[in-house]
Amino acid sequence: MGKPLIEASKVSKVYRMGDVDVHALRDVSLTINEGESVAVMGPSGSGKSTLMNILGCLDRPSSGGYWLVGDEVSQLDRNALARLRNRTLGFVFQSFNLLSRTTALENVELPLLYAGVSARERHARAHEALEHVGLGERMHHHPNQMSGGQQQRVAVARALVTRPRLIVADEPTGNLDSRTSVEIMALFQELGRSGITLLLVTHEADIARYASRVVVMHDGRVQSDERQTPLRAEPSPAGAEVSP
Amino acid sequence: MSPLQVLRVAVRALLRNKMRSFLTTLGVIIGVSAVIAMVAIGEGAKARVEEAFASMGSNLLVVLSGTTSASGAHGGFGSMPTLTWDDLKAIRSEASAVRYASPQLRSNQQVISEDQNWATSINGVSPEYFLMRTWPTAMGSPISQSDIETGSKVVLLGQTVVDKLFGSNADPTGQSVRIQKTPFQIIGVLGRKGQSATGQDYDDAVFIPYTTFQAKIQGGLQKFIAGALMISAVSSEATTRAQNQIATLLRDRHHIPIGAEDDFSIRNLTEMASAQQEGVKTLTTLLASIAAVSLIVGGIGIMNIMLVSVTERTREIGIRMAVGARPRDVLSQFLVEALALSIAGGIIGILLGLLAANRLAANFGWPILIRIDVILIAVGFSGLVGVVFGLYPAQKASRLDPIEALRYE
């Protein structure tokens, strides 16, 4: 299905907690091709969040190599990692992580601000991204004036406004009801069709079915790695969502 | 991010907590306004002292005769006349650093007009006296050299004396007054001079030719000058030189052996003026230093609140880092917030300080002296306070680990 976007080779992560070394990841090797949608599953403590942090350039591995779009990122400094997060990656979090007391539009503009995009272009692109996730009407609302589903859609718009290669989603449906979850997954699938790679961390098997590949982690290792035909997310008819 | 963007983000963050931002800047506001008000007060006091010494006259020296010592009790300077009229002539002709010299013979007497009388100081002087003190006549004519030579019975009145004897704004020129039963013709009135540094009223005096003073007030011609010599140097730098020349000249003329005490004393009024100015300057520095300390305390207040703010906004910092903020973007954001607080405080402080300086100056009747350099220093200093005390919290923010920050509740 395309070239490798992510290549992790024998990635380990060791945390020091007091006198004890905690091996969060042990020699994880993983290759993800462009356009794939990968669900990472596993019980808590299995290392899936650590893996996501490393693949999302928020953290660096203790050992092993990690190539993102051909660049070795395990040795990059904080500034270079920030640049990668800004240009190549988009994040969606379980708790949305939007700036409060800041409008949806400004939240979506935020990554562009750090990319040094001009105010006019920032505005136009954020506008477009919000239209894309169906929030054209709510651009000037603050997060606390929106439902969870709407907030998560703002977060998706923020993730895709920089036109990233990879979207990393950490339990994106964890705080949403099942119908809203399906909506968000439909949105991700739509992005996938436009060529964006998705890395999804979840513990819900229902959600993992929408991915084209499921990686199960256990005790810091990859337990299983299987490709599947993704279930197509069928969102409820427009307007069915209950506004707050 | 462009600096303008950083500023906009910072200002918006500060406006979210308006009350807290205001209270945070209060320390800087008080510090800056205190510095400005204190310096303005100090400058006002200095100007007041300068004014007082300027009205006394410029580059002045006063030569007093020696002391008597009778059975162990020393009289003050001038208690024994040692200066002669020939000394005055010698000073005028031989001391090159001396510009003018005039005797000042003084006595307190009753001045009597037709229907009023007033006790004031009668001064016997030469025409140079008014040049030294830059004291022109407001009405009539000054004492002339021929008045000295003929010992004419003419008098110049100070404004206060005119007010007491003839009423304010009267022109008594041509009328006469009696001093010790001798009628004097009023030839003019001196301009208003005001008060001395010690609060003495310069205008409460009358002036007559010193020859007339000797003949009519003291009685009889004398070899010695029964009073002081007032001398002005050619320039303010030359006052010390003039002082030395006069001392050498007088010691020589009085045949004082080397090592023996002078039988006269010379007071350098310029030195007195600079000593007083020095005192005022010390006071100003002291006041400004205390105010500057309060500015530093204000800076610590900013640091405190910025630290609280960094902790409070840990999650926000995490979000910003996740979407691509580099450590230096976070650093500059918090630094600019601290700077914006301190500079806003500085500007408000300047306005308050100017207001306070104005009110105080009005209360004390001082001239209002606003020093631009002090204002610039105060703003610069408050900016510096912002950078110095904002740096630590900002660094703390920029060094946060994005994962930890995102997890922070």
Structure explained in plain terms:
By secondary structure, chain A is of the alpha/beta class. Helices cover 32% and strands 28% of the residues of chain A. Chain A has 7 helices and 10 strands. A 6-stranded mixed β-sheet of chain A has the order 6-7-8-3-9-10, with helices on both faces. Chain B folds into 2 domains: 3-52 and 275-407, no CATH class; 81-262, no CATH class. Chain A binds chain B through residues 53, 58-59, 78-79, 82-83, 85-87, 91, 93, 97-99, 101, 110-111, 113-116, 158, 162, and chain B through 1-2, 5, 9, 16, 315-316, 318-329, 402-403, 406.
List the SSEs and their pairings:
The complex is a heterodimer of chains A (244) and B (409).
Chain A (H helix, E strand, L loop, with lengths): L3 E14 L2 E14 L3 E5 L6 H8 L7 E6 L2 E2 L5 H10 L1 E5 L10 H12 L3 H14 L15 H13 L5 E5 L7 H16 L3 E5 L3 H4 L4 E6 L2 E7 L17
Parallel strand pairs in A: 3-8, 3-9, 6-7, 7-8
Antiparallel strand pairs in A: 1-2, 1-4, 4-5, 9-10
Chain B lengths: L2 H14 L1 H39 L3 E6 L3 E2 L2 E2 L10 H10 L3 E15 L4 E9 L2 H5 L4 E4 L4 H6 L3 E4 L1 H8 L9 E4 L2 E9 L14 E5 H10 L8 E6 L5 H15 L10 E5 H44 L1 H9 L4 H38 L7 H27 L3 H6 L2
Parallel strand pairs in B: 5-10, 7-9
Antiparallel strand pairs in B: 1-11, 1-12, 2-3, 4-5, 4-8, 4-11, 6-9, 7-10, 8-9
Oligomer: heterodimer
Mean pLDDT of chain B: 86
What amount of the residues of chain A lies in strands? Answer: 25-35%
Q: Percent helix among the residues of chain B?
A: 55-70%
How much beta of chain B, percentage-wise?
Answer: 15-25%
Query: What is the succession of H and E elements of chain B?
Result: HHEEEHEEHEHEHEEEHEHEHHHHH
- The global form of chain A is globular
Total of domains of chain B: 2
**Strand order in space, largest sheet of chain A:** 6-7-8-3-9-10
Short account of what is shown:
The complex is a heterodimer of chains A (244) and B (409). Helices cover 32% and strands 28% of the residues of chain A.
